[in-house]
Amino acid sequence: MQQSGNEENFMQPLAYRNIDKxxxxxxxxxxxYDECGVFGLYKTDxxxxxxxxxxxxDALLGLQHRGQESAGIAVNNNGEFSTVKDVGMVYSAxxxxxxxxxxxxxxxxxxxxxxxxxxxxxxxxxxxxxRYIYGALGICHNGALTNFKELKDKLEQGGAIFQSYSDAEMxxxxxxxxxxxAPSIEDAIIKTMHKLRGAYSxxxxxxNKLIAVRDPYGFRPLCLGKIGNSYxxxxxxxxxxxxxxxxxxxxxxxxIVVVDSKGINSYFAYEQNAENKTSLCMFEYxxxxxxxxxxxxxxxxxxxxxxxxLLYLEHPVDADMVCGxxxxxxxxxxxxxxxxxxxxxxxxxxxxxxxxxxxxxQKEKKKRLLNTKLTALAANVKGKRIVIIDxxxxxxxxxxxxxxxxxxxxxxxxxxxxxxxxxxHACYFGVDVKNEDELIAKRMNTQQIAEYLGVDSLGYLSxxxxxxxxxxxxxxxxxxxxxxxxxxEIPKEIxxxxxxxxxxxxEK
Amino acid sequence: MQQSGNEENFMQPLAYRNIDKxxxxxxxxxxxYDECGVFGLYKTDxxxxxxxxxxxxDALLGLQHRGQESAGIAVNNNGEFSTVKDVGMVYSAxxxxxxxxxxxxxxxxxxxxxxxxxxxxxxxxxxxxxRYIYGALGICHNGALTNFKELKDKLEQGGAIFQSYSDAEMxxxxxxxxxxxAPSIEDAIIKTMHKLRGAYSxxxxxxNKLIAVRDPYGFRPLCLGKIGNSYxxxxxxxxxxxxxxxxxxxxxxxxIVVVDSKGINSYFAYEQNAENKTSLCMFEYxxxxxxxxxxxxxxxxxxxxxxxxLLYLEHPVDADMVCGxxxxxxxxxxxxxxxxxxxxxxxxxxxxxxxxxxxxxQKEKKKRLLNTKLTALAANVKGKRIVIIDxxxxxxxxxxxxxxxxxxxxxxxxxxxxxxxxxxHACYFGVDVKNEDELIAKRMNTQQIAEYLGVDSLGYLSxxxxxxxxxxxxxxxxxxxxxxxxxxEIPKEIxxxxxxxxxxxxEK
Amino acid sequence: MQQSGNEENFMQPLAYRNIDKxxxxxxxxxxxYDECGVFGLYKTDxxxxxxxxxxxxDALLGLQHRGQESAGIAVNNNGEFSTVKDVGMVYSAxxxxxxxxxxxxxxxxxxxxxxxxxxxxxxxxxxxxxRYIYGALGICHNGALTNFKELKDKLEQGGAIFQSYSDAEMxxxxxxxxxxxAPSIEDAIIKTMHKLRGAYSxxxxxxNKLIAVRDPYGFRPLCLGKIGNSYxxxxxxxxxxxxxxxxxxxxxxxxIVVVDSKGINSYFAYEQNAENKTSLCMFEYxxxxxxxxxxxxxxxxxxxxxxxxLLYLEHPVDADMVCGxxxxxxxxxxxxxxxxxxxxxxxxxxxxxxxxxxxxxQKEKKKRLLNTKLTALAANVKGKRIVIIDxxxxxxxxxxxxxxxxxxxxxxxxxxxxxxxxxxHACYFGVDVKNEDELIAKRMNTQQIAEYLGVDSLGYLSxxxxxxxxxxxxxxxxxxxxxxxxxxEIPKEIxxxxxxxxxxxxEK
Amino acid sequence: MQQSGNEENFMQPLAYRNIDKxxxxxxxxxxxYDECGVFGLYKTDxxxxxxxxxxxxDALLGLQHRGQESAGIAVNNNGEFSTVKDVGMVYSAxxxxxxxxxxxxxxxxxxxxxxxxxxxxxxxxxxxxxRYIYGALGICHNGALTNFKELKDKLEQGGAIFQSYSDAEMxxxxxxxxxxxAPSIEDAIIKTMHKLRGAYSxxxxxxNKLIAVRDPYGFRPLCLGKIGNSYxxxxxxxxxxxxxxxxxxxxxxxxIVVVDSKGINSYFAYEQNAENKTSLCMFEYxxxxxxxxxxxxxxxxxxxxxxxxLLYLEHPVDADMVCGxxxxxxxxxxxxxxxxxxxxxxxxxxxxxxxxxxxxxQKEKKKRLLNTKLTALAANVKGKRIVIIDxxxxxxxxxxxxxxxxxxxxxxxxxxxxxxxxxxHACYFGVDVKNEDELIAKRMNTQQIAEYLGVDSLGYLSxxxxxxxxxxxxxxxxxxxxxxxxxxEIPKEIxxxxxxxxxxxxEK
Lengths: 508, 508, 508, 508
What we know:
The structure is a homotetramer. The first copy, chain A, is an alpha+beta fold.
């Protein structure tokens, strides 16, 4: 790990550890990254035959789309934690041999991570296991704290040391601190929630309890399932089908749910939601979550299809075929096709096999990755007027490549439709946008983007329509990345801290 | 490698070598396996800047669906061959470091392999490089010889030894033998073609030439492309788009095409096709090839879509949604939807991330693989009458699982339609069917299969319709796996040789 | 890592991480283990061409005998730390690729570790890099704190969390705490030394300084060298020859030496040594250190040879050949031979190649390891009366095996001589003895041991003689493991903490 | 593998395959390389509990000094062969998991290889398993054929193809050919021996038999042992002690020993030794074999010690200490010390831990390897007149480094003594000398070498004395590398074939 020598600089890239040479170079999933998936299982007495490690492994596989940079599983056997975790995807980080060597335990928690800094770094792999005055804690976190710097400064002034400066390590510190004056772990976590600001969906294991926590805004999803008589928590409901669990319900914003030998209990950290305003991330519906998940009452697939329908209403066009960019544009394309009555069709073949690239200049490598990942289905494209649907445009490079593929394949017209509004603002709640300045919509208006991409027309979904796609959800939404309206104040320093130039530290 | 001690037994499983522990357990692609993909590039003078190794690597990535058990690249630098090959998929077998260490060369050939015996074995990895009286030869093969045993017996009676008993090794032996009495390598290969029976699409590199060969029946595809002024050969045209090549034409059945410093030349091994009967494998259109490939003049995507249309004509049904089993049923589903006017929709989400399974009994493992690989999209399935399209049913287990997923997701009716006829007969030309006895269609009639699967109705495409899906192709077809009509006689012993019980060898 | 859920239990085995499958099973070096080696280099301006990473790598290779369970290197480039570290030996943990990817920097520190718990665990690999209010710190530690539990309890009562509960993490915490009220890092370290009890030889890198620290007792060695105009610190002087450095001097007990851009400075944390009593570990001379090291003025080789001479004076015997058990008994055997005039000879061949054992019951595995590691040289042993010298007897099993080998090889008599006194007491200062109860000398007297081993006679060096082997050293000695006279009081709880039965933690 | 395109060129470097990145860079053992070790076990009925794979693994570990470039084990289970083999040392090539996956079998054979071309190449790893008209054969070979080219030319003219052009592949071809006209495998092997010229110690497994073969000159050692009621063969007797076997006797030159279910039988391929002249390689005694082996009746240790004694008689000197260069000079040093009455002492510490070098220019890397591998023990060297014994000088670079280390450590005088004559001639029987032109003794006389090395005196053992060191052996000797007297005629072409410039192949 590379760690900077100055507090202004703690979020700088945490660089290379002894990286497994067998890790393939992953083709970028896209240009926007979600951050982390969490899972936890508490095996109720009588369910001993459940293979908790297998279940957690399979759940992480089903959450892999939420984080491909590290994966980990921790087993809690009556207060003793055993962990397997490493950088890499599930198949690589969680080797069969290592999982076999794990002891069994009543509680198993798991995590997949995406780091905003895009470097393979083992120092922040989760589950994070710490020991403090009341024993051990295992923590899995999805989200992003906005008052990280403020918390850090205060802790450091008390002598704290950090080994990774991850949100999870910070949360562990706050829990340990609060636990000193709290009668129970539940109480300490409630006190902790009042200290934290920002997005956090947590799965925590104390020696005897499995605890799920969702921040009062409900930025990230978190839900409860049941396998036999045992309870489990997951970032997304899609995993329940894979592991044989039944979906019970979503964890509410501001709620903590505790499972232990006495059963399941729920607490709320706030009288009501602090400001009566919940704000689930709209981007979960648009892009991040798997279509077979249901979040806060709304099917992700249906939300995307609805986005496609609304997109047609806002930006109709006469064409021969509606296509989606695989995989993220396919669902909205179904909606656009249904609303427009234009036939839905396949324009692209996505190579599902992973690549490892021969060394070459970075730029050429990226181009090769795109070329080997996606090919146009000329036989179905040639001579047609195509409506091509994607979920978003970030820097515009990939979209431009897609348009070129269609044109080269003989498309007569290419009409691009985007199932979300222009992406204009940084996210501070757990979605990574590399650099606000690289956002094409910051630099160009829609007409200019259309010209840059070489499309015959371009249309984005409006913010108004976006807010309709998940109508009926049990929560409110955050659309700050599109609208700039942040549901809570963003400290000026958070940004400096995370993305500033490197500052050298000199001793006084 | 495990090698049997008796000539009756040479095709027995060639077992474990020092297997890379990092290899993930691959979820089975299906229950029918195609065998191998080939590629070759000859860099014409002036095209030195072409990175032949990168191009071949990317081409193999595009052919990965044709073989995931081993991958290899050989560079021929003025008669010196350097090879990187290993068991595993492209990303694992062809490491970045190893490819970087390869010298450059005018000729590069590559291969991905599927072995019918489903065991990781390094002894038969290709390209096979051999040295004989006229120097070295590199050989990449896709297909299966039917007179293997006859050729082997004869060679062994002359003192031959075999290190893998692969078709490629056999072909190398025959070329070496024929070359003794032939004035040129081209002539030796033509003589060799007259000795071989069965399916073979070859890319061969002699010290100074790159040679493509397609058997007189044209069982397997093989085509010619051009990058700059340089020529390349590939099993499927889909790779040309990825590597920046232009599709030129298919290699004809019985043709050999030779590229060397003097240019490109074509020869035919037979006056006419031996029996005026070419027989491209129909299963290439139905399942094996990538939809963005064009084989012998017909788009694979269009053939599949057409299969779906014909399937509707033969087996119409009243329903709410037409869905495909990902990925192989999606194209035919488009056709069925178009013909029936029933909306096309998405019923399944396929997890694209690869898994590694914690040890457990084999059966449970398979079930877990299915569960984590495919989930039903309940939001879109619930309450609907579903037409579900797949390309084939082999043993029926996977189909049964798919039907169960749909039912559990709330489908009101499930009508299964198969875009090919019942699979009834073994293939001897390069498609692997584990065991004829395991074919469900051998044991049950359609009604019984429908009951076994639990579907409301079941319909297969007829052989007559199948022969229409690629109408207009420049070749005839082999549909022996459906019809039992083999285009050439199958020696009785080939089967014994490959699938017989193990026989112990005792010295006399 | 396996981490226990209770503060009584923090030193329990930290179990499996994703262990590199390529790690060979290491044949046990012996039954007593030293703990860790440290190195640090500060490149003075003008010495830019020095390859600090290569030098540190080679130094760690030379310290490998001090720790084979993990290895790590950290580069400090103007306050930014980059680290490569992993479980395993130097060749395995520090891959060529990872080292190449490290940036260059003025300061490089390195560490090899042995953990007393004999489990491969990545959580405590060093260098430990932490960030605190004044930037980052890199810490490499050799030794053991005796007031660990006391410090831990106090810190936890202030809300501290621990991720590994290693001494290094504890020392980092104390430095961070002291730095809050200290004008400089040097001052903070001096204050820290007054908080720590026990053995610690540290190499610390602050953003701009390289600092070496030796506890006031001087339990573990630490010395200063010079390469060109640059300074380096190492656990043992033997590495200087390998890296082209000149030995300057030992760090004094209680001294801290600081190198920065202004040069090199020395400070003492105590007016005098606290109790005017220094206590370098005698076992460094007897077994741990490499014979080509010079510690506190005395050559390790000469000390061992002298031990052999004194051993003869105490336990003479009439014999045909004096032999050493490779490698640790060879030097003392030279001394015994010289003193006795009995010819020195070779009785054993040690296989230097490392093994990986096929799975089998643990006991049989150990026997096989011994069998493949050591063979008797029958041609030189047969018919002779042998004096066999070893450095110590711990459990007696290995010694018994050695005697058996000699007898089987035809030795007429076997006289065992041990170049140290009976090993009777646990060490709390950095040498690991598995379990005091397993010490054969605790359970049997010398006569009984001789009978158990099957030797014709057995003699140990006396404590009196032992204290003469390094006569003239600049420090006093600790011989507590032989004499039971600990140079400082051992808190009762340290032992409970580290070796107690596992205690489950239950929430109140 | 890199394979050349021309028959003149078949022995050119066979280059990189997908090399395991975890392989450490091996410090060169020296500058002369022996080639291969073989082992075989036949489990007699009743000895089923013997773990043949473990035994063979441990035996290969004991033969590791004979070859570190690849290792392999093959199990023959009633005619079915299963193999684990790969490039790398035993611990790396034979992974625990792979060995566990091997089936059990009556016959197990194993091999460690050194290739003269010093490149990691998997194509020639052994045991080589081939199938031919009479079933399968497993072959392990130690030696070198001198009529390889002649045999190859003839076979190729019959249409043979080669996949590695190793001696083992050639021997397999000849056996297969001879077997066509032989009533039994034994007879075929006897016929084969009459075709082969040069050095070969073979362990062969036919479906039901384990066969050991030693060429009529007996160039390489091969011996027979017994474990329980089962027989085993090994290159050196030293492994018997490790695997619990009893040494029975050496295989005689020209003998074949066959073990099968009926017992053990011996045959001789020649009436008498063809020319009544056996010629065991003297270099086995001088350097290659382990000192605890006994070859043809003579202890290797005793031979080396005797060499040291004779060396003193030929080149006495007045000095303070006699030292050996570890490890190969230690035994002769014992002899020199005994004869001269000068005390034997330790001058060097050899670091037994393996290294992996950070990339740097090759030359600097070699220097670093030497520096980290060997350090002078200054405390024992300073001010002394040293006699330093080594087994041979090849290029002189390592010797020069050793002398420099001694001088830097303060040696007053350095007298080098070499326990063999000047190395002047290439070996064609299995010992690799990189390049005759690089032999320092070819270019300089002894006085010049002494000056180049910077020693005060230099003395070699004479050929006459050399022939006395193994006096009483049951065989004659080959000392051609010293004397130039080759026991059989060396075809001119063998050398051209193996070391000639690369020749490009152009098709006619």
